[in-house]
Write a structure and sequence with these properties.
Elements lengths: L3 H5 L11 H11 L3 H16 L3 H15 L4 H23 L6 H13 L11 H13 L2 H46 L7 H36 L12 H13 L8 H11 L6 H18 L1 H22 L26 H12 L3 H24 L7 H4 L38
Helix pairs in contact: 2-3, 6-9, 7-8, 8-9, 10-11, 10-13, 11-12, 12-13, 13-15
The structure holds a DNA duplex (14 and 14 nucleotides).
Amino acid sequence: MDEQPRLMHSHAGVGMAGHPGLSQHMEGTGGTDGDGRKQDIGDILQQIMTITDQSLDEAQARKHALNCHRMKPALFNVLCEIKEKTVLSIRGAQEEEPPDAQLMRLDNMLLAEGVSGPEKGGGSAAAAAAAAASGGGAGSDNSAEHSDYRAKLSQIRQIYHTELEKYEQACNEFTTHVMNLLREQSRTRPISPKEIERMVGIIHRKFSSIQMQLKQSTCEAVMILRSRFLDARRKRRNFNKQATEILNEYFYSHLSNPYPSEEAKEELAKKCSITVSQVQYSVSNWFGNKRIRYKKNIGKFQEEANMYAAKTAVNATNVSSHGSQANSPSTPNSAGSAGSFNMSNSGDLFMSVQSLNGDSYQGAQVGANVQSQVDTLRHVISQTGGYSEGLTASQMYSPQGINANGGWQDATTPSSVTSPTEGPGSVHSDTSN
DNA sequence: CGAAATGATTGACG
DNA sequence: CGTCAATCATTTCG
């Protein structure tokens, strides 16, 4: 921009590199002392003040004349060449900075959060995840939570996109403006395409730094949103009665090996129509907690265990009264193991159970299932037979699988857990002490 | 309101 | 990676 006067007032000194007009005056007249300088400035101001339309016209005329000079194209080319060289040497060093890591991170995050991803149809990652979650759970408040979250997220998303678009537009506008300007000027001064390119690059960089700010604040917003909503999964939400029922049923009917496989967990989660987000963890959490707490204080759970045992027993009898299969396929209600047994001294008992029953576990491996079937039948029979607590309650369900350390180390491979044949449900009847 | 219950989280471990 | 054990944090209960 400030170079314009150079050619406009080309008479002032074409060869001067810096500021032709000024420098010439300085060097020429009075570069030695302050007074001289002031004088110069005064002169210049004077000149400026006296610029009139006529003088401008005159300048234009001169310019035109210069442009029409026969040597002009050649000179211009030379200038261009020189400039090209210098420009190239200048930018050779500073070009190609690595793609900003920060920006990459932000981009990745925005993409992951579904803010900058594919636009429509709720096709964003977050939305998809939400859909998956709510689809599996079908929980009422779950979807409500999620829709709230999604609404907020899409709000952010929208703002982000509008802003981004705005920036983009402004950037383009400005770029074209500058390019036009430069093209315009390139007729009067040497401007190589490379230079224009560089200018555009600079502009883009500036704008992308602005965009980065936008991305940064968007990221922040998303993080805040997450911490408020998704991390609300940290917020505890009790399972409803039915879900607890189902889980307990499974737990007590698999008391000897209460480690549901992934599929089983999934199944359970589906059945429970779990309401929290993070379905896959909830069931695991539940079983983890249950195992620990059961083991910790078996006595406390006896009543519950009894209850579910009765329940599953009844269930089983309904399915098969003649015992051809006491464990219905696909429903994990095989024979229960619960007991009105007071297990306060459980530790010792377990040992005896182990030694009595398994004597080794490779035997149990095969035997457990058979054994369980038998026990199941016996259990069912005894239950159906009228529930005499003398028989059932006293010697039935000890927490069979639990060993002295309190671990559930039992022989059956977990792979069979889902299948109805699981549940070495009760190895109990041997434990008559 | 305090205690109990209970879902979730964390760190160690194999 | 799943489990255990301890612990946190929230909800429910008396």
